[in-house]
Amino acid sequence: MTVKISVLKERDEGGERRVALIPQVAEKLAPLGITFAMETGAGVASSYPDSAYKDVTFSPDRNALIADADIVLAVQPPTLETVKAMKPGAILIAFIYGRNNPDLVKALRDGKITCFAMELVPRISRAQAMDALSSQATLAGYYAVLMGAVHMPKILPMMTTAVGSLRAAQVLVMGLGVAGLQALATAKRLGAVTEGYDVRPETREEAQSLGAKFVDTGVDATGQGGYARELTDDEKQKVRKALSDHIARSDLIVTTAAVPGKRAPRLIDAEQIKAMKPGAVIIDLGAEGGGNCEGTQAGQTVQVGPTTIVGPINVPSMLAEQASELYSKNIMHLLQQIITRDKGLAPDFTDEVISGTALTHNGYITNDGIRTAVDPNSPAPPAPPPAPAASPSPTTPAANDAGKETAK
């Protein structure tokens, strides 16, 4: 059975340079019975010209590509017009951030579009190859340190010269998720003295494994889904007191705290910034969500007292070639779960990865949290039927034995 996939060209308004499909991934997916159509020039900004794609049809007519597509791929949330041009029952795969785009979520629901939102991929071991948030954050953490090095009035490593030695820079990374750990690793490779902080104590060993000192504040704010919970007022004061000295002596700080669809938590206040050394730099990767630092301005570089605060937006797009490669491979692994050569398009909504990534399906908003935020009166979807039990056979272990094997 043939499945037609159309790939959108990202609009220039947001400076997005990534593309959702690279040539190598298109070739790997073709044996599943997939035909590809792309908007003309979709990959050019990420160094993938149309000529690099084999057996892919190109067209400048977006609506024509969308109208008969079984699956539409994109990076950023598409426009309402794009969703309305899709046929009922079609699938959209992209970053959506439903809480920030309620009208888009409603349009997906009303159009009976099945949407797999890439920011919703469950953070479990089996879904790691589909985790687009992590793949893109890896690049953002790497690039944050390079941006910091460009803005600093000093170098990162220790250097010995004929007239004396230059001391290594002090780098503090706040928020030790994927981006933060990559920032620590990059700063260490470049010769800096590194420290890492997170409200989740279990990140201590990860920071130390990268050669960094862990800043222990005595607060445990481990939350659900791999994210930290919000701190109480007392906890905030305790954390602030423990961190202020580390902030004051840092040459470069990279802040990475972000929760998809919500405001970025405040990590550094104006008083702490004022106490920093002249020439210090903060790279605030939470800028798009309102900033981790007081004074951050999204998309701008500002001077606040002695400190330069850089608030970059869409950092992965700055590394568009490899960001597209990783994102496209994330999508490939998802598509391999919902498309088979024999059955064609057949997503299994009893699978926790498929159901967890789904935002809308068959006229319902399937994600409980986003449904409550976007339209509390919208009905919950009916529960999917249970998966059929496997038929016993002479070569199949007894039920109890099979259960034990699975548990292993």
What integer value in Å does the Rg equal?
24 Å
* Number of E-state strands: 19
- Number of structural domains: 2
Give the helix level as a range of percent.
25-40%
CATH class of the largest domain: Alpha Beta
Q: Tell me about the biggest sheet?
A: 8 strands, mixed
- Number of helix segments? 14
CATH homologous superfamily grouping of the largest domain: NAD(P)-binding Rossmann-like Domain
Beta-strand percentage?
A: 15-25%
Mean pLDDT: 91
State the distance separating the first and last CA atoms. 36 Å
Oligomeric state of shown chains: single chain
Q: What is the third-level CATH name, the topology of the largest domain?
A: Rossmann fold
Structural class: alpha/beta
CATH architecture of the largest domain: 3-Layer(aba) Sandwich
Instruction: Identify the strand order in the major beta sheet.
Output: 3-2-1-4-5-6-18-19
Write down the overall geometry.
globular
Enzyme class: translocase
InterPro entries: AlaDH/PNT_N (IPR007886), AlaDH/PNT_NAD(H)-bd (IPR007698), NAD(P)-bd_dom_sf (IPR036291)
Domain Alanine dehydrogenase/pyridine nucleotide transhydrogenase N-terminal: 6-140
Catalytic activity: NAD(+) + NADPH + H(+)(in) = NADH + NADP(+) + H(+)(out)
